[in-house]
Design goal:
Blueprint: H1 8-17, H2 26-36, H3 42-54, E1 59-61, E2 69-71, E3 77-82, E4 88-92, H4 96-106, E5 117-120, H5 123-130
Parallel strand pairs: 3-5
Antiparallel strand pairs: 1-2, 3-4
Length: 132
């Protein structure tokens, strides 16, 4: 097994993501980390993010459009993306077993993982739109 050296930058990335529910992009993480590490490169941030994803410490969320986002919450859950403001919200996966069972019964093989993303308008955007 490969031994990974301790990295202050990697630790700063993990600290930034801990408790952060905004699902930031690598660019947003880079901007934040640069405050503490002005000489850090975007490539270093990407390498450390990929290492954290591979080790299971964080989750990479890839959508069909736009950049990847990163999530410190690696427990099973789903996401809601607001088409108005673009924010990403967590949805607890209370229905995961039901969805997995239904999909497994229809799939032509064994399902190993899945991502589920809902799209709509968040309450803040809906309220702003309705108040016009």
């Amino acid at each position: 097994m490969k031994v990974v050296k301790y990295s202050k930058q990697r630790e700063a990335i993990k600290d930034f993501l801990t408790g952060n529910t905004s699902h930031p992009t690598a660019d947003a993480i880079y901007s934040s980390i640069r405050e503490e590490f002005p000489n850090v490169s975007l490539g270093t941030v990407y390498r450390n993010l990929n290492m954290l994803v591979e080790s299971g410490d964080i989750r990479k969320i890839t959508f069909t459009q736009g950049p990847d986002h990163f999530d410190y919450d690696t427990t099973p859950h789903y996401h809601f993306i607001c088409r108005g403001c673009g924010k990403i919200f967590d949805i607890p996966a209370d229905i995961e077993k039901v969805i997995n069972s239904a999909a497994e019964s229809k799939a032509p093989g064994c399902i190993e993982s899945h991502d589920l993303v809902y799209y709509g308008i968040c309450n803040d955007c809906k309220e702003h739109r309705d108040s016009r």
